[in-house]
């Protein structure tokens, strides 16, 4: 029997919404509380790659929504014939140093995915709700918000990202603190004509990454949209790409500049030793472009007191990790699938949610604690091409889930 009180999901990002869709399929009541005032206020992010968690995502979504993922790919045509490979290049030559074993994948727009996942959940999403604290009593939890309101639920699920307030409330500020890696990261969206993008798509039509052997500078390039997707087909066609650079911090001069123009200048300076095609795309970044800094922080999963199964975590709140293995999203979706499965089993068989949460968290810790550390090592290895080995987590096969 479903609980009389709903499950409270804190965070209306991709993982929180995926969990909500899975609970909706299982007929388990829920409510979502998101701090942003609306979907339109989110910056949306760049692209994301779903690979080994595709089956988990499918299990969470109604068939019609899952079928529509193909329509929000950054390049639907490439999605049809994609090789699934991940290239790691020597940036001095643009030749592959490693070809990461391929897997079935989809490269999709983060912004469009989030919008898709809200469909059918309009009545359950409460916007502009900033979480402040919670209290537990027997088999329920009371969640309080900055505007003075509070709600009661059977389970509180923190899906509120790497800086999770839920995690801090569970563990305390020190235990919940993120670890800062000694690496800095900047990214920009670039617009290119078909002629400008062709040399990059000749390397790989979807995405690639690499490191320069002398400077240790790391580059990631991925398609964000094609004329078919951005509506420019038939005239004035253009492509959009995600262009990121990162580097090790060795002195104060290695910190990210404050102004956008200085950030662009730093990217161009770092790209001077790159192979000519790669150098050209960085040199072509307009000087007034918005360049984002991404903080490279992580949090290896720890055991927390789930207050007798009334509070738990999913996604980046439970296992913040760097993007160098491309697995954070895949683990988050797997969290949503595993938690919803355990709760649905308890609901169907008359079991306790406490046992369901405990079982979920045990699997979560076993799966994600090492994954965070592998991604941390991958980040460091990404900036040392000369010592990069085939067994590095940067270029080895991605997670294979246990049955």
TrEMBL record:
Keyword match Hydrolase: no
Pfam short name (any one): FAD_binding_3
Gene3D superfamilies: FAD/NAD(P)-binding domain
Top-level taxonomy: Eukaryota, Fungi, Dikarya, Ascomycota, Pezizomycotina
Organism field: Mytilinidion resinicola
Designated name of the protein: FAD/NAD(P)-binding domain-containing protein
SUPFAM superfamilies linked: FAD/NAD(P)-binding domain (SSF51905)
Database matches in InterPro entries: FAD-bd, FAD/NAD-bd_sf
Cofactor: FAD
This protein's record includes keyword Heme: no
Alphabetically ordered keywords of this record: FAD, Flavoprotein, Monooxygenase, Oxidoreductase
UniProt-recorded Gene Ontology molecular function terms: FAD binding; monooxygenase activity
FAD-binding domain location: 124-371
């Amino acid at each position: 029997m479903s609980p009389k009180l709903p499950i409270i999901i804190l965070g209306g990002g991709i993982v929180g919404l995926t969990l909500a869709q899975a609970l909706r399929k299982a007929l388990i009541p829920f409510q979502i509380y998101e701090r942003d005032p609306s979907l339109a206020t989110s910056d949306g992010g760049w692209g994301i790659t779903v690979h080994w968690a595709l089956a988990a995502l499918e299990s969470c979504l109604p068939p019609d929504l899952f079928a529509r993922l193909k329509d929000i790919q950054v390049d639907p045509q490439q999605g049809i014939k994609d090789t699934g490979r991940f290239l790691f290049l020597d940036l001095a030559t643009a030749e592959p140093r490693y070809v990461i074993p391929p897997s079935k994948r989809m490269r999709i727009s983060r912004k469009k995915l989030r919008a898709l996942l809200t469909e059918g959940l309009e009545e359950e999403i409460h916007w502009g709700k900033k979480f402040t604290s919670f209290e537990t009593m027997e088999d329920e939890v009371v969640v309080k918000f900055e505007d003075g309101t509070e709600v009661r639920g059977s389970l509180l699920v923190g899906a509120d990202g790497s800086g999770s307030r839920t995690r801090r409330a569970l563990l305390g500020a020190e235990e919940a603190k993120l670890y800062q890696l000694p690496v800095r990261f900047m990214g920009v969206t670039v617009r290119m004509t078909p002629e400008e993008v062709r040399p990059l798509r000749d390397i790989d039509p979807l995405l690639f990454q690499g490191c320069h052997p002398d400077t240790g500078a790391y580059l990631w390039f991925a398609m964000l949209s094609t004329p078919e997707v951005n509506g420019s087909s038939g005239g004035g066609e253009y492509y959009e790409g995600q262009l990121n650079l990162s580097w090790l911090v060795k002195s104060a001069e290695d910190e990210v500049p404050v102004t956008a123009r200085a950030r662009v200048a730093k990217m161009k300076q770092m790209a001077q030793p790159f192979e000519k095609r790669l150098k050209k795309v960085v040199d072509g970044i307009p000087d007034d472009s918005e360049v984002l800094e991404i903080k490279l922080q992580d949090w290896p999963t720890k055991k927390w007191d789930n207050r007798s199964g009334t509070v738990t975590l999913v996604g980046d709140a439970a296992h913040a990790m760097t993007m160098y293995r491309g697995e954070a999203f895949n683990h988050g979706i797997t969290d949503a699938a595993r938690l919803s499965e355990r709760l649905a089993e308890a609901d169907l068989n008359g079991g306790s949610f406490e046992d369901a949460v405990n079982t979920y968290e045990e699997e979560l810790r076993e799966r994600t604690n090492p994954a965070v550390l592998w991604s941390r090592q991958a980040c460091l290895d990404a900036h040392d091409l000369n010592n990069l080995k085939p067994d590095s987590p940067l270029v080895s096969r991605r997670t294979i889930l246990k049955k």
